[in-house]
Amino acid sequence: MALYAELHRHLGGSVVPRVLWRYFQRSDADLAGRFPEYAEFEEFYTKPRNTLDEYLELHTMVEGVQTSQTLPYFIYRLIRGAYIFENLAYLELRYTPFLRTSDKLSQTERIDRMAEIVDIVGIASQVKEYPIVTSQILCMHSRLPYEVNKAIVDLAAQKRQYVCAIDLAGGDAHYADRLDEFIELYAYARSLGLNTTGHLYETTEGCYPELLPYLMRIGHGIQIPLQYPELLGELASSGACLEVCPTTYLKTGNLQDIRQLKVVFDRCFAAGVDIAICTDNAGLHNVRLPFEYENLLTYDIIGFEELQACQNAAFRHAFAWPYEQPPALLLNGLFQTATPDLADVDLPELELVHLQETRH
Length: 360
What we know:
Elements: E1 4-10, H1 17-27, H2 29-34, H3 38-46, H4 52-63, H5 71-86, E2 88-95, H6 107-124, E3 133-141, H7 146-158, E4 163-169, H8 179-191, E5 195-196, E6 199-200, E7 217-220, H9 223-227, H10 232-238, E8 241-244, H11 246-251, H12 261-271, E9 274-277, H13 282-285, H14 289-298, H15 304-316, H16 327-338, H17 349-359
Parallel strand pairs: 1-2, 2-3, 3-4, 4-5, 6-7, 7-8, 8-9
Helix pairs in contact: 1-3, 5-6, 6-7, 7-8
């Protein structure tokens, strides 16, 4: 039964190790030769890295094989796993479309091909046997030129049937020299009526308060409650939501112990700042969303009440969820409508008592 919303998942990091390894075995002789056995590939692909930049290098391995021809293959398996194993009712996939085009083309030609990529992802995400509400977030990138990033914003505005927001990715430590440029692009996106999120305050080097007024959600944002809790009141007033991805911070070396997140959750709850719990790169981590929930509970970082609040916040802040309520409440309404009141059913008295006791 699909119940959950995933607001922060990268297309490049969403492919689980087994699916990616099988693809290499069938289609990429070089990588198949490098990793002839699955166990060694899984160990390489999912092991922690020392820094965020080192971690992000893994995306290039997947971006190179996620082409217009192969994207439907990967997305079908992604949607199937999300529905069957994660109970997802809603999924936002984020990626940089420019990086799914051939590097043999000119920059102008690659920009022109981005619309085709968005269409392919949009169509491939609609899998009838696994009904999940899906949408795309297009990522500007800290290492792409202004012209490409502006074209990504324009494309998001043109493809609203598939795209719900824009993002900025590529490692938040790399924004400083181009901060005015990114502020301009976010202001432009807001002027077009686009929703916005951004990788920000993930690392101690990626803290830019100048960008906060332009963001409706913050990708990660954990350094705000950890290092700058005075900003939480401003976030609460603006209604911003943090997209917290617990396993990521252990894989990138940003945190040494998952229990350090207790401060993040406690301070956000106290200040009235919403948190959506996410996976970020479920494939790179070999971790699914319910496991993120379980981990937080196991380590006493949050309780069940706080977990429910985060799950509800995810639907409340979902850019393309088409209903006013999360699916659990919608299902409750359906069950209440479908189940007759036993007092109105003409049953022998003893049988009625038995059914009432069974229900309670």
